[in-house]
Specification:
The protein is mainly alpha-helical. It contains seven helices and four strands; from the N terminus they run βααααββααβα. The strands form two sheets. A two-stranded antiparallel sheet has the order 1-4. Helix 1 packs antiparallel against helix 2 and helix 4 packs antiparallel against helix 5. The longest helix has 29 residues. It starts with a strand and ends with a helix.
């Protein structure tokens, strides 16, 4: 194994800031829905709105970084090795079989991760942001008067926002599982903290290929 610098400083800061804000938005959001009482309804609404604006600012910074650094290419979907990747997560990983796709600096995500993260960025996040902003600014001051958006009811917006929240929770749970699928349970977590990940060297892979050819 050799240590390779996979995640740069901005990538790690963005990841952990995003994780913290999403967790806080879930905590305050479910309290607003009456699931439990912790901050209190009014305080939960205030903190939820502050976290939401912070999250939008982080999204803008992340979009700028993705396009200026060229890392947006990481999310281009592909079907190559997709079935093998699904099989790995569902069965092969429990049989200690090797990972079907090698992680590199230029290709940090496997085919399944690309699809999941792409859906997260172009589906879940836009739904949450747009419905959240509409809910927050349904009534707004203008020219000394309180104006309202042209909605007869906020129910569809609330339902879409809640649906997006449950999808976000599912993504969060799936992400926690994916963290444990490295060559050790904690290796992926350590990589996102230090930036370095232990990957198989080219020599090791060459030797494995030779052994497979010899077995055939």
């Amino acid at each position: 194994m050799e240590k390779v610098y996979i995640y740069d400083t901005f990538n790690r800061i963005w990841h952990w800031a995003q994780a913290a804000l999403i967790i806080f938005l879930m905590i305050t959001g479910f309290e607003i829905h009456g699931t439990y009482t912790f901050f209190g309804y009014e305080t939960a609404v205030q903190w939820h709105n502050i976290a939401a604006i912070s999250f939008i600012v982080l999204i803008i910074l992340a979009i700028f970084w993705h396009f200026t650094s060229g890392t947006w290419r990481q999310y281009i979907p592909t079907t190559k090795q997709l079935i093998a990747q699904i099989k790995y997560y569902t069965t092969d990983i429990f049989q200690n079989k090797p990972h079907p796709v090698k992680r590199t600096v230029l290709s940090k995500l496997n085919p399944l991760q690309k699809l999941v993260y792409l859906g997260f960025k172009i589906l879940i996040i836009p739904v949450m942001v747009s419905t959240g902003l509409m809910y927050m600014y349904y009534r707004y001051p203008m020219n000394g008067q309180v104006q309202s958006l042209d909605f007869t009811t906020l129910e569809p917006i609330a339902v879409l926002h809640t649906l997006g929240a449950f999808l976000l929770v599912q993504f969060f749970i799936a992400h926690i599982y994916l963290i444990t699928t490295g060559h050790t349970i904690s290796s992926n977590l350590k990589a996102m903290i230090t930036g370095y990940e232990e990957l198989e060297s080219e020599e090791d892979e060459t030797e494995k290929d030779k052994e497979l050819i010899h077995e055939k």
